[in-house]
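Before drawing any conclusions, I looked closely at one protein's amino acid sequence and its backbone structure tokens, quoted below without any editing.
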Amino acid sequence: MVIDTDHLVNQIHAQVEGVAETGFPMDVFPERIQKIIYDLVTYENYNMEYTASIILSAYATAIGNTYHVKIKGVV
């Protein structure tokens, strides 16, 4: 049985930070990104929601125009 330490640490951080009470969906991020967010919250005293939104914005910028949405029936 392999124990994923990042997952365990992220679960503990989520309980300490009260993620369940706020309803913020931290589980949409990969484990490593969650760890980065929780570390910034813990050690640098950053706000969790702002930090996660900045990372989400960085993801959107990295994706850029590589994906296009095609609406059914519209050319």
